[in-house]
Design goal:
This protein has 275 residues and is an alpha/beta fold. It is 48% helix and 16% strand. It has an 8-stranded parallel β-barrel, surrounded by 5 helices. Helix 4 links the parallel strand 4 (92-96) and strand 5 (129-134). Helix 3 (75-87) crosses helix 4 (113-124), helix 4 (113-124) runs parallel beside helix 5 (145-158) and helix 9 (229-249) crosses helix 10. The protein binds flavin-adenine dinucleotide.
Length: 275
């Protein structure tokens, strides 16, 4: 089985951000990833910028995969967006529930990502390759491990083709999740999401919000480095390269890098892995 490598961007807000993203995209394009995905802000807040970013990637002859979250949306709004992507020849998509932005009330016409996947299949058949999210360390709102896994299975049953995980630093949790999924008949590729470590405070904030565990030894080590960014980056490269090597060595079907719109850390991990 060939492995799948992909890189994730967020839609930039400023002209400088747009330039920075172009430079990162061009540098990472040399690694010939299967696709570049572009996130979708909570509640559709980046709808137009996600579309623009996706179209610019596609215009470079690269494959772009928009993320699409359904919470707070109507069926009509989602159908319009699917048609827009389709009319531009986009065939890859990351389908999510998303989170409601604070202050927003009413979930709209979709409650969970499996309903979005089913709706995409219902309205556009097999046009899109659909990725969904997976949580080896359990989604923060899930009742327990088993129900979360069943909900993951529900997205696969609704028509997902492959999955990308939330980032994690514990390879064993990933392998267990893949085993448990296989035992339940889930046979789609589950690609690990990889978060390079550049900034400890930012990483700690993200991890607390999304339920990704930073192992205690790593947290302590990063904390002890204070604002010595060079040492944090050096430690991060060692730890994340080692994680990627373990994942690929153990049979992971590829890697999806959360690049944070920076090429440097991903390029260096790639070089060290000898990919
Ligand atoms: C690879 C990846 C990319 C992401 N990209 C974005 C992005 O671009 N924009 C963004 O806003 N967020 C993004 N997120 C975050 C994601 O939107 C949040 O984690 C969100 O809280 C859950 O989305 P989901 O699609 O996994 O939801 P779901 O699969 O719907 O699961 C959400 C929760 O509901 C539970 N659940 C699922 N189905 C049911 C059901 N039928 N009944 C009861 N409970 C159920 C699950 O166990 C889980 O706890 C991304 C996450 C990942 C891993």
């Amino acid at each position: 089985m060939s492995r799948t490598f992909s890189f994730e961007f967020f839609p930039p807000k400023t002209p400088e951000g747009v330039e920075k993203l172009r430079a990162a995209r061009d540098a990472l394009a040399r690694l010939a990833p299967k696709f570049f995905s572009v996130t979708f802000g909570a509640g559709g807040s980046t709808r137009d910028r996600t579309l623009e970013t996706v179209l610019e990637i596609q215009a470079q002859g690269l494959t772009a995969a928009p993320h699409l979250s359904c919470i707070g949306s109507s069926r009509e709004g989602i159908r319009e967006l699917l048609n827009t992507y389709r009319s531009h020849g986009i065939r890859h998509m990351v389908a999510l529930r998303g989170d409601l932005p604070s202050g927003m009330v009413g979930v709209g016409e979709f409650n969970y990502a499996n309903e979005l996947v089913a709706y995409i299949r219902e309205t556009t058949g097999d046009w899109f390759h659909i990725e969904v999210a997976a949580y080896p360390e359990v989604h923060p709102q899930a009742r327990n491990y088993e129900t979360d896994l069943q909900h993951f299975a529900g997205k696969v049953k609704a028509g997902a083709d492959s999955a990308i995980t939330q980032y994690f630093f514990n390879a064993d949790g990933y392998f267990r999740f893949v085993d448990e999924a296989m035992k339940r008949g889930i046979d789609i590729p589950i690609v690990p999401g990889i978060m390079p470590i550049n900034n400890y405070m930012q990483l700690a904030r993200f991890s607390d919000a999304c339920g990704a565990e930073i192992p205690r030894w790593l947290r302590k080590k990063l904390e002890s480095l204070g604002d010595d960014t060079a040492s944090i980056k050096a430690l991060g490269l060692d730890v994340v390269t080692d994680l990627c090597a373990r994942l690929l060595g153990g049979g992971a079907p590829g890697l999806h890098f959360y690049t944070m719109n920076q090429a440097g850390p991903t390029l260096e991990i790639w070089r060290r892995l000898g990919l």
